[in-house]
Write a structure and sequence with these properties.
Elements (H helix, E strand, L loop, with lengths): L28 H10 L6 E4 L4 H16 L34 E9 L7 E9 L2 E8 L6 E9 L5 E10 L4 H47 L19 H5 L8 E8 L6 E7 L5
């Protein structure tokens, strides 16, 4: 059987969004599986060196037509929260630059309503009976320009999105990625160091807390031990032990009572400040 390839007649193509073969719904079992699996992929599809506007129009028309038929097309669906932050901060958009790459396009589907910031609409047009709205960012990053295009059809509730990037100056994208990677590594080291430091401090303070409480209960400070001064922690008196529910003395138990001079917390018997 002859293999048919339709370069522009998308209504005759396989339902997988980037397949040009003329067979429906799918040209083979593998493409059917890919179309179903890729729609659950958590990241957008990216095109190295970008995609022309005309090709985006044609692909968007095919995708929305297939979705109107309740068929899978292989384009991931990503929640609208990705439209509320700069794209270079999100893992849903692969920013790893190829050699000599100055442009890139990302394709995904999402809800039709754009939350707003950081995008602002700049224009609208109709192509192949579907509506295309263009958006730009309020604040353009120094390394390039991002343009968002939303394709919406009355036959399907969700929309097709294209995020397009063009480098502003030669080498600016590469420099940004290098700086961003260095900062990320620096922050990672700082977080790890702080985590180890805080773990050690917490362990030492927890030991001091336990020793301090034991000393107060026994009334005999440990030699060489420096107690943590906490005004609201007092030694237990015999009458308080015999009458733990004596409201006149305002005795209470707070499992997570705060230390006065820090953030360390622990179980202590406390007296109201008015009785100190």
């Amino acid at each position: 059987m002859d293999v048919q390839v339709f370069t522009k007649r998308f209504l005759h193509q396989c339902y997988l969004f980037d397949c040009l073969r003329g067979a429906q719904p799918f040209c083979n079992v593998d493409h059917e599986w890919v179309a179903l699996a890729d729609e659950d992929h958590p990241h957008s599809i990216f095109f190295v060196d970008g995609v022309s506007r005309q090709h985006q129009d044609l692909l968007s028309f095919k995708i929305l037509t297939v979705k109107a038929l309740n068929q899978a097309c292989g384009v991931p669906f990503i929640g609208a929260e990705v439209l509320t932050q700069p794209p270079w901060l999100l893992e849903e958009f692969n920013m790893n630059r190829e050699e000599r790459e100055t442009a890139r396009s990302w394709l995904f589907m999402s809800e039709s309503d754009i939350p707003g910031d950081p995008w602002v609409a700049t224009g609208q047009r109709r192509v192949y009976g579907i509506e295309c709205t263009m958006y730009v960012m309020y604040e353009t990053p120094p390394f390039g320009r991002f343009i968002l295009s939303r394709y919406r059809s009355p036959l399907h509730e969700d929309s097709v999105y294209w995020l397009n990037f063009n480098e502003r100056n030669v080498g600016s994208w590469k420099m940004f990625l290098q700086t961003n990677a260095a900062n990320a590594q620096k922050n990672k080291i700082t977080r790890d160091d702080n985590r180890r430091y805080n773990a050690g401090i917490s362990e030492n303070l927890a030991q001091n807390r336990d020793d301090n409480l034991v000393n107060q209960l026994s009334g005999s400070p440990k030699a060489g031990h420096r107690s943590i001064g906490v005004a609201s922690v007092v030694p237990l008196k015999p009458e308080l032990i015999l009458n733990p529910d004596d409201e006149a003395r305002a005795l209470k138990f707070e499992p997570r009572a705060s230390w006065r001079d820090g953030e360390i917390k622990g179980p202590f018997l406390l007296l109201e400040d008015s009785f100190l």
